[in-house]
């Protein structure tokens, strides 16, 4: 076929006529949009349709014929009809023999049918070469040129040459084909466009829930308590003060939740003495969404940083500073520098900055293009070593910040602890257990288990 | 051929002799640079040249022969000569039959010839397998190892095996081949290295023009007006104060310009009642540079953030603060906290922070490696839903900031409005029309049109 | 083979039975982990082992047979045994003829053997089709599903179809195959997982050394000197003040070191009059780690920005400000605005912001996914033009900051200059020489040399 196209080229040097004719079965929305785009890219297009007269919806330069005549005109037939009508193709089996059929269909639900549409088509027409493609692109995107992103078109099929032909068409339309292997991948490809951040759902709901809890906890302690007992209206704390308390707490807890499943996994493996038994389902799922948890933690940490940095610009803070300075000036006194305070304030800020810096590094290495360029050893070094270092620094940042209030009974309004105390529970627990796991007497058997040895080989029988 | 190379390997285990001989026609700069690199990577190189004696420019380990003898020694011939001399290859057609010819040529202008150089070569020598490659790499980069980026080598060709062979050579030189399909892609590949950010040209010139206008507008109102009427020299405002006024204005206007073409498109479609007619050319072009507009808006927003955050470090601000506090102290008075002001200041900052946060999220999802990992539904969710949310937050941020000055006649120097008032026109217009378009009575017909229905089927005939 | 798999599918529509049987030689850790994963992905797995009875370690659904029987059951055999035992495969040559052998082995050291394990295997069994794959994935990652990153599996092999088959398996396991070409790439693939940021080693050690030097230099001048001669304890400067002096110095020096090798290269080429001789080794190595130097410089610059922005939040700074304002208030005086100071402070900040902004742009364009989307001309424009602009702005930022102290003898404690003076040496030298190189009388011959001309053709003979 490559030979032919090269010959065609020699005969017809004009760009718009060099391409091979493509046949499209079905004049629905996607069929029309794809036809438009193909004609723009220089492909002659023939539509196969039952009603050959409705030509006004169809691109002007396209021909409309009956199915059989249209199929005979092209080596590639795009099946732009719905799966439930695939049966009508069976009588055309002889015409379609040896031709490339491109299945572009999508379903309405995940795993709607036991086998994918493309595999169903391949079973109906075993003599044709079925290729799955184009289902990840929307008709609206094709039509309006809104292809800023998602230029990727997943392609799969059992016939290498047929797949190459379709991938060439994909490239000619300005899209990027991605070979997903044999037709067995069609199910996954058909499920793909139906997803809306499936890996992010649990982490986002967890974060929203925790954020709401901590927010109202803070509103109660900071605003309502102050209003009731001190008769001060600090309702404007809702805008910055309270978000800037909730964000660091969320960041620290979520970062600790990234490392907690690894701790659980190590304990389970030590207890079982083997790595060859599957983890409980909840742990598996948790492990798979660690990256998402980490990125949400990073988002909260970034918000905390910006909320903190705007502090001097707040009217409330500037009023408070003025008040303090004026009262000192009126009392004719200048406080000496409190060295302990200077140390605490500076080391607290420095710990936070370094922890956040490492956190951002982790975030950058989790960008797909960066993580694809590091090997397994490097990835583990960054995510494990630097990640724990970041957790240690951020926990220390929180400890130094709140250190002096821990044992102060005045800090407990309504006998409730401040949220930064709550936020320290999980990180400290993770760090303590991780510290124990690093000891040689624990680390050695764990390493052996992870290298495949079994303490009790009979266990798994 | 793969079989052969595997046999060769068995006979010659030493790395530097395992590779197949490559012939290079032409001893110009690129031919020499490529030959150097290939010899370094272990390929025996034979040059084909008219003058076989000028060997001092040519890598020492390379042989130099006449064209015919050189071509007979290799299965792959790299054509490192200019298109205008391709004709001299015609007599060699018989020697080159069945061989892989690699066209590495570039042109001086976009679309200089009606057909690409590689297609021209394929027409001259129909018996050879022409592959386009290496034209995107510069000789200087090859020579000096300066391949930090742009390791990508676009490869296209009609013969699959020939393409694979060339891609293997590309990989062996430490570069990354990218299959662009059949030889029809050669035109695009030849145009590629001539481009200098073609999609960025219009957005950058627009931004520069608007920035210059707003900058001088501000200089007039803030510095010249103050100098003339108040006799104050605030010329140092040029460094930070005025840039920090222009940046947010530019960010907001450009962000609104990202969403304006979508509004126009919806109105045009509603008016025409069909999506199958092309948009006017200006709208098409505008739509295609929305990503660039958005990223420039993000750059301005980031500058605004940093310019704002350094405020407390400015000598002028610190002088102003001192003056205010000292005058209060000398008057022996302490102002009470102004709750309205505290609310306004905090909510203005919080709106800005959240808007900027969403804006950065949009920027991250527009990184190629991230946007390739989201499907169409997810991309639209982020770019449309979160994008509009960001626009709403940023507009609200500006409204709250300037709210109290809107109707204040003192704010109008020389009867001209402040630039933040100008900056609100487009964003507010976009948000109002978008709000109308979301109403069911408008949204429903629009959705139908975008799903392919036509209100007036005769229209497009 | 594709035909067969399509037939199989028609007969056995159930997902778990559609895949072709895979044979694994060796029941070690990786063999077991891979078998587990393959069974999960629907592949029937047969183990080939000497001891067919130890079935408790092996996945339950897998069969365990002798090597010959196992090999006969599958077209693909994964060789999960160590290189030193490859010899035992020689007697099986007849059974393995025509089959796909997947070499997954790794070595313990870089370039441990003269030829790669996969090539060794191909020499032992010339009748089989050897494909290298899976060696970049760790058994522990496969087992625990911890594949957040590094989903990439490098694949190479001489037989195209065999490679395609293995790539389909890789895809089916949820991993991303990356074709690295012929089996000659096996050595590189086997070395890959042993690396730990090889390109980063020198830049990181250089940065650590310089940082330590500047840190202790500052500690001596700022803390020890002050303690001895002024009896002030400023030990808390260690947390923020001194890091915020070292970071900008390191950023500026490293940024200059990115552009210094280019200067050296230009001088060497001008001196030699040719570009066809290799640079000295140290220059080659330096050139190859410029990207890493630049990114470390960016990290230091980012730390400097954050350290600077938290300044107003420091207890020490707030104490110093109060003290200054109170003393003014007590003296009943208000200083007038110092215009020179306002200009210096604002322009110093503005230069730093713009320099940092361009620096971040450079960082973003060096992300692999971004740099892959720009052509050579665009990359050079960004990295060279914008890079030099950033260096100029950052150097000016430092000059304006320290300008007034340069000639002040009080600035020289112990007759030692402040570190920002040291930091200016290399950047200023680079900028001055670059300025000279831009002059036409120097630029013209340099451009000619880089386009391939030789001043003295005999030189390289």
Automatic annotation (TrEMBL), chains A, B, C:
It catalyses: 2 Cu(+) + NADP(+) + H(+) = 2 Cu(2+) + NADPH; 2 Fe(2+) + NADP(+) + H(+) = 2 Fe(3+) + NADPH. This is STEA4 Metalloreductase. Keywords: Copper, Endosome, FAD, Flavoprotein, Ion transport, Iron, Iron transport, Membrane, Metal-binding, Oxidoreductase, Transmembrane, Transmembrane helix, Transport. It is a multi-pass membrane protein. GO terms for biological process: copper ion import; iron ion transport. GO terms for molecular function: cupric reductase (NADH) activity; ferric-chelate reductase (NADPH) activity; metal ion binding. InterPro entries: Fe3_Rdtase_TM_dom (IPR013130), NAD(P)-bd_dom_sf (IPR036291), P5C_Rdtase_cat_N (IPR028939), STEAP_metalloreductase (IPR051267). The chain crosses the membrane at residues 204-229, 249-271, 292-310, 347-365, 386-407, 419-442. Its cofactor is FAD; heme b. The lineage of its organism: Eukaryota, Metazoa, Chordata, Craniata, Vertebrata. Belongs to the STEAP family. Residues 249-393 form the Ferric oxidoreductase domain. It comes from Vidua macroura (Pin-tailed whydah). It is found in: Endosome membrane. GO terms for cellular component: endosome membrane; plasma membrane. Residues 21-107 form the Pyrroline-5-carboxylate reductase catalytic N-terminal domain. PANTHER family: DUDULIN-RELATED, METALLOREDUCTASE STEAP4. It comes from the Eukaryota.
